[in-house]
């Protein structure tokens, strides 16, 4: 029974549509996990970057601190020598040294303060990243577990649907089954079957002549729509 064959195909199409919903749900679970993993990756590489900045600034800071320590010791010694100067020339020379050292010390103190602020800020940012990585690891593990269960459930449902579809297809005649599978190669989950309404394909609107339309309605031919390649299905099979 030709119309009966098409009826099986229509049911197979509608089960495959349901299957697609479960496949999408599976996909959603996978992308949920991937999103968190991606966020963790971004934060982890940002943390590495911050740590390398911190190490650079810390080196710079200790260099300047050593420089400050040396310059202050030098200035102290110069100050001690001034009262011991034997003449004005010596006093002037010592004063000149101080004139160079004092602004240098002041500048170093400012730079050190600034570097301390920068390193403190970097430390804060690093601990923020740490917190995120720690917290998100916990939620990632939980979400992974939940989604594994969800995915398993979806897969079970898909398996049942697949079995039903394959049983329906085996009930349809070989010509019909082959034509359906051919249309499915291009249109799986996207209406592999089309109907003729007002002499045109209900999906792509390709117009068929009256003779073709009549033959198709009898259900005795397996014709693909010349416009979209879908298997043209008699309307009467839909209402059977
Ligand atoms: Zn079409």
Describe this structure in words.
The structure is a single chain. This protein is mainly alpha-helical. The chain folds into two domains: 15-172, Helix Hairpins, CATH 1.10.287; 177-239, no CATH class. It has helices at 2-81, 88-171, 174-187, 210-218, 235-239; strands at residues 193-197, 200-201, 231-233. Helix 1 (2-81) packs antiparallel against helix 2 (88-171). The longest helix has 84 residues, at 88-171. The model has no long low-confidence stretch (mean pLDDT 95).
Give the SSE layout:
Elements: H1 2-81, H2 88-171, H3 174-187, E1 193-197, E2 200-201, H4 210-218, E3 231-233, H5 235-239
Parallel strand pairs: 1-3
Antiparallel strand pairs: 1-2
Zinc ion (ZN) binds at residues 194, 201, 203-204, 206, 225, 227-228, 230.
In short:
With 240 residues, the chain is mainly alpha-helical.
Number of strands: 3
User: Can you tell me the residue ranges where pLDDT is under 50 for at least 5 consecutive residues?
Assistant: none
CATH architecture of the largest domain: Orthogonal Bundle
Q: What is the residue-averaged pLDDT?
A: 95
State the CATH class of the largest domain.
Answer: Mainly Alpha
Helix content: over 70%
Order of helices and strands, N to C?
HHHEEHEH
State which percent range the strand residues make up: under 5%
Shape label: rod-shaped
The main pleated sheet reads as:
3 strands, mixed
Bound molecules: zinc ion
Termini separation (Å)?
Answer: 12 Å
What strand order characterises the main sheet? 2-1-3
The tally of domains stands at 2
In the CATH scheme, what's the topology name of the largest domain? Helix Hairpins
Total count of helical runs of at least 4 residues: 5
Q: What is the SS-derived class?
A: mainly alpha
The radius of gyration over CA amounts to: 40 Å
